[in-house]
């Protein structure tokens, strides 16, 4: 009976995690990064060659995985290529990332993995960024799987785990260039976890069996990476570019922040949309760290794995924190490990402190975290999903842009050329308009509006203190819309076309 109850609760938590990630995926406008990825999917589906750009793009795996998922979403919903169908993949990856915690039950303990699964299922940042069509939730999924298989390889010294480790490393490399941080942190964590036996482990790696495992893993990882970067062995410049990206990748200014930025995201604070944060994750994780590095008696057989996860968590947190370039979704890369540590810490405190009062407090903490996280997730992922006051909103597109998209759609129905009508868009910032105007073949993008343009709709993006163009007020009607925080769009619409909206005036 107890086992059935646990399975029912587990099933409900997993269902909640997937539901929060999949429900109403198209409810917020596309972020610029999402739109860039979406346009590449559209080009791929149209049969165009889309190759990895080492200066601007992350790896191609997101695109290749998205294509069958988009086709499946279209078959089920019949809506074609939409914001919702694009986000299916990342929502699925986020949900599977929750399920992966079940795999850790033999390593971290059944109860610890269950508590961590509860935290992860409703974690506001994990839910929020699973609903973004960006690389992070996919990368985090493969990171967790990589950690699981690399530990099993060194623990059991089995060739199949070496192969799976290599495959996951290949997936990680094909997803993001930050795979180097995962590999470096895992290597350091393994050395720490070996303790005094590190020389014996290195000697085993040099043995025939160890070299076979390393060779198999390296071969599989390379094949998987090359498979995607070479566009399935048709574009051999891709694998080279995957190396050159570490020298050529261009980052924009304005993304620098203090070293404790990510920890601040986890701790949280009170904002106009209410208190947000998961400080209890870090507090419980402290107990997990204590067990890993100080406790010598409890769970002795699992201590090496505890030290591995604890070391990996600390190293990745430090690495991401010292890099000045910061975006909030990168916090997921080590938040998932803090969550696993929190699960371990909760179970450690439960077994170490056998007071009824302590047990009651731990149950309250678990239930409170569940309820509060659900409330935060509703506020941040739905009600304020594109609001600049939301701590996870980062340079997100204003919902006001959708009013412009609707206006253009209405005008195209009134124009004799329909969606073939000419549209000119100028300024330094205009994404995600190329996504929303992807069905309009005659859209031009410029730094400045061309003189003498015959476009019936002209759009100019500008910052608040920037000089804007002026067009004949008798020939054009003007509108002002928001693109994102502090970026605006000035729209000029040919007066004759504008007046067609009001036939009875």
Detailed description of the structure:
With 505 residues, the chain is α/β, with parallel strands linked by helices. The chain folds into two domains: 2-383, no CATH class; 400-499, no CATH class. The chain is 61% helix and 8% strand. It has helices at residues 2-22, 32-45, 61-77, 83-103, 105-108, 110-122, 124-130, 136-156, 159-175, 179-194, 198-206, 208-229, 237-248, 261-267, 279-293, 303-322, 332-352, 356-383, 400-414, 433-436, 495-499; strands at residues 269-271, 274-276, 423-426, 443-446, 457-463, 476-484, 487-494. The model has no long low-confidence stretch (mean pLDDT 87).
Question: Layout of SSEs?
Answer:
Blueprint: H1 2-22, H2 32-45, H3 61-77, H4 83-103, H5 105-108, H6 110-122, H7 124-130, H8 136-156, H9 159-175, H10 179-194, H11 198-206, H12 208-229, H13 237-248, H14 261-267, E1 269-271, E2 274-276, H15 279-293, H16 303-322, H17 332-352, H18 356-383, H19 400-414, E3 423-426, H20 433-436, E4 443-446, E5 457-463, E6 476-484, E7 487-494, H21 495-499
Parallel strand pairs: 3-4, 3-5
Antiparallel strand pairs: 1-2, 5-7, 6-7
Helix pairs in contact: 1-4, 1-6, 2-3, 3-4, 4-6, 4-7, 4-8, 6-17, 6-18, 7-18, 8-9, 8-17, 9-12, 10-16, 12-13, 15-16, 15-17, 16-17
The amount of beta strand, in percent, is 5-15%
Overall geometry: globular
Give the terminus-to-terminus CA distance.
72 Å
Tally of individual helices: 21
SS elements, strand count:
7
Taking the sheet with the most strands, its summary is: 5 strands, mixed
Rg over CA atoms, rounded to whole Å, is: 25 Å
Order of helices and strands: HHHHHHHHHHHHHHEEHHHHHEHEEEEH
Class by alpha and beta content: alpha/beta
- Overall pLDDT level: 87
